[in-house]
Amino acid sequence: MIVCSCNVISDHDIRGVVSTGDELCSAAQVYGCLGCTVRCGLCSHSVRRILEERPARDIRYAPVLEP
Would 27 disulfide with which of 37, 40, 47, 57, CB 3.0-4.6 Å? Predict the structure, then answer.
């Protein structure tokens, strides 16, 4: 489905960028990765929703070594 009609960007395009592992936090960052900029801004809510839907990262911390 087309999310941004100004730049003709689909939800698949956005999900592809979001799943790369980069720490993207805003619609502007997503658009930057896609090589464009936000124009009218009507799609920013949809882009943010896609960002919020991404699964939580599996963060693993190194064990703390006791002296």
Answer: 47
Q: Reduced to 3 states, what is the DSSP secondary structure of residue 2?
A: strand
pLDDT at 59: 47
pTM recorded for the entire structure: 0.73
> Greatest CA separation found in the chain?
59
Q: How far apart are CA 46 and CA 4, in angstroms?
A: 9
Domain limits, the chain: 2-53
Nearest residue to 17 via CA among 2, 32, 30, 1: 30
> Residue 30 CB: number of other CB atoms within 10 A?
27
Beta-bridge mates of residue 10:
2
